[in-house]
Amino acid sequence: MCHYLGIDLGTSSIKVTIVNQHGKVLVDGIHSYGIIEKNNGWIEQNPQEWLQGLRSVLHEIATKDRSLLEKIISVSVTGQMHGIVPVDDNGSSLHHAIIWSDQRNEKELEQLHALLTNEQWVNMTGNRPNISFTIGKIMWFKKHYPKLYDRVYKFLLPKDYIRMHLTGTFATDYSDASATLLMDVQQKSWSEKIIHLTKLDAQKLPEIKGSTDVVGSVTNYATQTYGLKEGTTVICGCGDALAQALGNGGVHSNDWLCTIGTSGQIIASTEDLKIEQKGSVHTLAHAVPDQWVTMGATLSAGRSFQWFVEAFYEKNQDLETILDAAKNINPASNQLLFLPYLYGERSPYMDEKAKGTFIGLTHEHTNSHAVRAVVEGVLFSLFQSLNIIKQTTALTPEHMILTGGAASHDFWAQTAATIFNVPIVRKANRGGGAYGAAMLAAVGVTDFKDLEEVVDAWDLTEHENILYPNESQSMHYEKKYSIYGKSYDALKEIFHDLHELGHHSKSFK
Q1: Which residues are catalytic?
Q2: E strands, 10-106, where?
Q3: pLDDT tens digits for 143-202?
Q4: Where are any strands of DSSP class E within 166-206?
């Protein structure tokens, strides 16, 4: 029986999934790694650790059952978006990867705002400048490492670096390209105007292909290194947010997805290009051919919860117990707000200077009150995006698919249903990004004609359970959300003053 391999390069780990022709997961593997924080706001990863992680997890699978790898007929890769890996013409990295959460390119962001208005950026790229996008990272690299910049053959996105090490080819896909601020969404190609204005080198950008396109095959080097069969077909893949949508059966315009991992997204698929003119949510190319995604992003979703647990609980505390205790807090008596802006914020503010904040702390509040506020704050932020996407697309979700780490606990899911005022669905399959990549691998070798056929054949429409809004809590959350919605505007000037204070303090030893 034929197998498909999906690889998901995340921020904290690399995951692999081997799936058979019926969509059954035969084996999962995961290898964790860390981030490198050199300076305040500088966040990098060593791409060699990604490769070592892939070697390790595939070796572990092969040790247990070598036949699992031998039966793989196609591979596809997904992964974290927006980051850069500068490589030479041999594919060797010239610098650590500068990843999505890095915030060093503030000056370059100012330059982008000076070059074009937000309206012009949005009309060309579907997005407005923000500190996470790839373009500012390349501009920063060129300014600070001009000699290295000259040596760069291609600036690869993280998942494309992994795939290049399997095939020796340099490419990206439309979903990842559309999240760089360098792609013209109308033409679906690198924007000559933007490249000219920013004085970047178009030759250093990879070719753009469809997510189900064949981009090469496993080389002899990759066979020796990773244990995959030489000549195995490799499919282009897509960004991780889109792969999450695919893995949960999200291929139609009535499929709405809320994913809460390190970051969080609300994703709606459309057949026509829908652009929110203020740029407060993102427009991206879908992995599904000729479809688009309107997406709102919260930078610190599950990361906010992780941060609080690490900062205020003893090590190795059981997360289920922590969430159960927060679940038992009466929401009506918890007059505590949390703004989840630990890394600044994307939707709807696009403000890299925003700060994470508790509002309303009193002596009566405990850790459990704060955890509940963190969960609510993350969901309020995503609810802002949900409302904007509804207005932009003229679509209304019948239900919302919840995926990511948050999907495993009823407290997250039930609170989401009540705040969003829409039924929350957890899929029986709960396919992650690696599973979505395996779907692309299956279509790319033409075992299935399209992703819709895969969704039907693999029963990805089956629901594990549905959680409905809690009507007794709805009115409370409406009032609390109204206060939440005013909080950023009330604190924006303070956030920016604190940000400048942080810059001034760097001069002190």
Answers
A1: 240
A2: 13-20, 25-32, 36-37, 43-45, 72-79, 85-87, 97-98
A3: 999 999 999 999 999 999 999 999 999 999 999 999 999 999 999 999 999 999 999 999
A4: 171-173, 183-184, 189-190
> Does 346 score more than 60 pLDDT?
yes
Establish if 189 belongs to a structural domain: yes
In a domain, 131, yes or no: yes
- pTM (2 d.p.): 0.90
Q: What is the pLDDT of residues 226-283, one digit of tens each?
A: 999 999 999 999 999 899 889 988 888 778 999 998 889 999 999 899 999 999 999 9
Residue 63 burial (10 A CB sphere; 0-12, 13-18, 19+) = exposed
- The two structure tokens encoding residue 453: 């056929």
Query: Three-class SS string for 109-148?
Result: HHHHHHHCCHHHHHHHHCCCCCCCCHHHHHHHHHHHCHHH
pLDDT at 426: 86
Give the residue numbers spanning the domain of 186. 3-243
Task: Please check the confidence at residue 508 and state whether its pLDDT lies above 80.
Answer: no
Pairing of strands 214-217, 233-239: antiparallel
Question: How far is Cα 452 from Cα 287, in angstroms, rounded to an integer?
Answer: 12
Burial of residue 84 (CB within 10 Å: 0-12, 13-18, 19+) is: buried
Residue 281 domain flag: no
Long-range contacts of 254-258 (CB under 8 A, 24+ apart): 254/395, 254/397, 254/398, 255/401, 256/397, 256/399, 256/400, 256/401, 257/400, 257/401, 257/403, 258/382, 258/386, 258/400, 258/401, 258/402, 258/403, 258/416, 258/420, 258/424
Residues 182 and 191: beta-carbon distance below 8 Å: yes
Going by their DSSP bridges, the two strands 400-403 and 256-260 should be labelled as parallel
The residue written with tokens 């459309």 in the block is 270
Distance, CA of 32 to CA of 30 (rounded, Å):
7
Nearest to 417 by CA among 385, 376, 388, 460: 376
CATH of the domain at 18: 3.30.420.40
- Residue 368's pLDDT is what? 96
Count the domains in the chain.
1
Residue 380: inside a domain: no
